[in-house]
Amino acid sequence: MIIKLLGSSLFKSAGIYVGTGIINAVIQFLMMPILTRAMNPSDYGIVAIFGVLLSFSTPFIGVSGNGAIGRQYFNKEDIDLKVYITNCFLILLISTLIVTSIVLVFAKQISDLAVFPKSWIWCVILTSFCTFIVTITLTLWQVQSKPIFYGIFQVSNALINILFSLWFVVILKWTWQGRIMAQVITVVIFAIIGLFILHRNKGFKFEFNKKYIDNALRFGIPLIPHTLGGIIMTTSDRIFITNMVGLSATGLYTVGYALGNIIGFAEHAFNMAYVPWLFDKLNKNDEDLKRKIVKFTYLYFAMILLMALFMTFVAPYFLSFFVDPKY
């Protein structure tokens, strides 16, 4: 069974996704020695809090419409996918307006709680909005099993982000402002590219459809508590550290967390190939195949555990020379 799986389309796609994830991780880690020398721990802390605020806004801006599109792609014989995508964009616009209004009212409270500059909160909303568009483009490539396009888009995104970061942070000395602006400008550029790709592939059909909006909201709204729960578990630590110790401690924590996140990159990359493959196989309703999927899942868990153990032993030696001594 294992040999057959290794030669399947799942592993071919997974190889590309994992390779893309590794390239992105390598790009970011090669930047760490440069950024840790150009920014102090407090600067890193502000950038980390920006990521936390971005994570909290994501479930509400777009209401997980990209996931609904990915799910409905497998029912495209029963729906007009172009109309469905267009109505998900309508949800994106309305939800962004609602979130923006709430943020404007509570901007001071958010700024005080997160210890993040009030005048920069607009970057969070703009980045979330554009990220949704980028994610739809990537989701469609994922469900269509086009990992090469997915990989090129992701790697290009990472490279452009790093180039802007080098320019703003290292050359212009903008520190945390430069790092955040690099992320904002990059996601805006790739959102425009994503819209162009969707338009070129005739992915839009401008027709209001209440049924499709209801369907997308029924998919996305129940996911909000689940998504927020995951975000609270994975990012609230930065808020607590910032308020209890300070931004410098958050910066130190973020650098260490980035190393451990290598496993997350590998897991996420594999999942990109696994999800469309899994849905395709489950639709066949083959009990024997389902048992094989369960066995393979156990094997996958064991591999992730071995990676975690390996990183545990390597991390102390790696960080001692990779980041600036002040970290």
How would you explain this protein's 3D organization?
There is one protein chain. This protein has about 325 residues and is mainly alpha-helical. The protein has one domain (about 1-320). Helices cover about 85% and strands about 0% of the residues. It contains 14 helices and no strands. Helix 2 (about 10-40) runs parallel beside helix 8 (about 145-170), helix 3 packs across helix 7 and helix 4 (about 65-70) runs antiparallel to helix 5 (about 80-105). The longest helix is centred in the C-terminal third of the chain and has 36 residues, at about 285-320. The protein starts with a helix and ends in a 5-residue tail after the last helix. About 30% of the residues are buried. Residues about 1-5 have low confidence and may be disordered.
Overall morphology = globular
- The count of domains is 1
Q: How many E-type strands?
A: 0
Strand % is: under 5%
N-to-C SSE string, H for helix and E for strand = HHHHHHHHHHHHHH
**Average of per-residue pLDDT values:** 85
Helix content: over 70%
N- to C-terminal distance: 47 Å
Residue windows where pLDDT falls under 50 for at least 5 positions: 1-7
Radius of gyration over C-alpha positions, nearest whole angstrom: 21 Å
Helical run tally: 14
What class would the helix/strand composition place it in? Answer: mainly alpha
In this structure, how is the largest beta sheet organized? none
